[in-house]
Write a structure and sequence with these properties.
By secondary structure, the chain is an alpha+beta fold. It contains 6 helices and 10 strands, in the order E-H-H-H-E-E-E-H-E-E-E-H-E-E-H-E. Strand 2 and strand 3 form a beta hairpin. It comes from Streptomyces qinzhouensis.
Length: 216
């Protein structure tokens, strides 16, 4: 296993039936990206592979970003898209307190809510957050992850609903955040980059992307 993960940037082929299916069905997309990691990972294979992913969409193109310890694009369906893979080692080694960065992440802002006077063993239901509540959630999670946010720009993303007989009967509300920040805790940020942030990671949430930014 590599010391640092790798990132695949896949320009999706809009004419591929598999791509069209996966963009409609987050459960199928998860199955497809898991084909890029080694077999035999045992229980919790996504977690053991260190796999996180996100779909970035514009008016003209869709790009699939996949991060994991090891990735083999040969596992993708024929004609799925053009993949470029790079090591993330330079990004991790560059992290230091005070470093200005640009960021992007798709997250599932939510909280667990228990009925009043419910037994402490009752976990309660997961409630999606929106508006200012979602922004505050992201501020808290980013701070815990070692980032001091300077600018946040939220963008609504189509919610995802897991499909299949064994899928949980719930919809995941998603938001994309773009902006600028400063690194305040490189160790915490490294952990967040490796493990992702928040819920719904199997459905395209949690992958934090960073790029250098000019200090203001």
């Amino acid at each position: 296993m590599n010391d640092h993960p790798v990132l695949a940037r896949i320009s999706l082929n809009p004419h591929s039936r598999e791509v069209q299916r996966d963009l409609r069905d987050a459960t199928q997309m998860h199955r497809t990206v898991m084909r890029m990691v080694p077999d035999g990972l045992g229980a919790s294979p996504r977690h053991r592979a260190g796999l996180l992913y996100r779909v970035d969409e514009t008016d003209t193109a869709s790009t699939l970003l996949v991060q994991a310890h090891r990735l083999d694009p040969a596992g993708l369906p024929n004609g799925y898209g053009h993949a470029q893979i790079k090591s993330l080692a330079p990004m991790f080694t560059a992290l230091r307190a005070g470093l200005p960065v640009r960021y992007r992440i798709v997250v599932n802002p939510s909280k667990r809510e228990r009925p009043p006077h419910a037994d402490v063993n009752i976990r309660g239901r997961i409630v999606p957050l929106s508006g200012a509540d979602a922004d505050q959630w992201w501020h808290r999670r980013a701070n815990t992850a070692g980032l001091d946010l300077h600018i946040i720009t939220p963008t609504n993303v189509h919610p995802v609903r897991p499909r299949g007989a064994e899928a949980p009967p719930m919809r995941h509300s998603l938001l994309r955040y773009d902006g600028t920040a400063a690194v305040i805790d490189p160790a915490a940020l490294t952990e967040a980059l490796l493990n992702g942030i928040g819920r719904a990671k199997p459905y395209g949430a949690g992958l934090l992307s960073l790029a250098p930014a000019t200090a203001s």
